[in-house]
Write a structure and sequence with these properties.
Elements lengths: L9 H16 L11 E6 L2 E7 L8 H7 L9 E6 L11 H7 L4 E6 L9 H8 L3 E4 L3 H7 L1 H9 L3 E8 L4 E4 L8 H13 L2 E5 H7 L16 E5 L10 H4 L6 E5 L4 H10 L2 E4 L10 H10 L4 E4 L3 H9 L5 E6 L10 E3 L3 H7 L4 E7 L2 E7 L1
Parallel strand pairs: 3-4, 4-5, 6-12, 6-13, 8-9, 8-12, 9-10, 10-11
Antiparallel strand pairs: 1-2, 1-3, 7-14, 13-16, 15-16
Length: 368
Amino acid sequence: MSIRKDKFLKKDKKYMRLALNLANSRHGLTGVNPSVGCVIVKNDEIISIGQTGYNGRPHAEYNAIKDSNETLEGSTMYITLEPCSHYGQTPPCTKEIIKNKISKVIYSVEDVDKKVKGKSFKILKSKNIIVKKGLLKDSMISFYKAYFFNRRNKMPFVTGKIAISKNNLIYSKGTKKITNIHSDKFTHFLRYKNDSIMISYKTLNKDNPKLNCRLEKLNKFSPKRIILDNNLLSNINSYIFRTVNKNNTIIFYNKADKAKISIFKKKGFQLIKSNLLKNDNFDIKLILKKLYILNCRNLLVESGNVLSRSIIKNKLFNQFYLFKSPINLSKLVAHKEFNSFKNLSQIYKNKKKINTQLGNDSITLYKK
């Protein structure tokens, strides 16, 4: 029996891992387009690298070609995702590859976009370019999980996050913060990696959150704020109200008087009227569909017990971070207990669960 040889060499894997690292560094920052990494190699030396531009353009392949100081004839291009082959807001990357006489293209996985899927392979092969695919496929499928979900379901990839005390409370009157500085920084990292963040008006009024990324030099990547507020009861003295502009905050509401609607619109909020379900709660799936149309692709939900429980029960979280502090909160004063453990366990049964320590805090990541 003959042993099948791997069609990829050790050096191929090395270059593709670099391409994946490039893509990963822009994950969540490329708008509606996927984050792609590209490495160009000639005579076993890297001559150029590229990654998708912020907000999605230019594409990684174009950036790598443009930034090369050498002729690309006879080179090999490593790409994390199938290159585009259609005209959109930019010319197809396959055209640039052909024009620059690149000899070999190795990409990991096919794009799920019907305008691209499988077409680039045929186009490049027809120009006598060697094309291979499937390198580090498992790693790439994991990396592009959110993008594939976006395209197939027309909804943002939803990440949940909630912090609880040792005795499972999310709130006790007089206590503002229960997690440590390391957990706080990780929370800001999640905000940096998501293009939008959702809370309810109750969380806004109780906590007066900023909902921005406060990691050094990354504050410009703060997510768009999404507020669920049925009757427009959000506090007009809140930080969110003071810092609104026409591009950074959306409020979903159901009914409010004309005067209040006028105040919010004049301030700069984007107001979207949305129907309620029979239990007087918003139809979250409908809101997610609308957010996709509005170009939200990665949504972080940092809300309280009610909204989190609703999304968990409706199985709309793609992943969920449960932060747990070693601190016990008092039940002798007004408090709220997180009571969705059972739902989490049922929904994510036999799914991937990752436990991590950040100082004295523990984090459990539930993944579908």
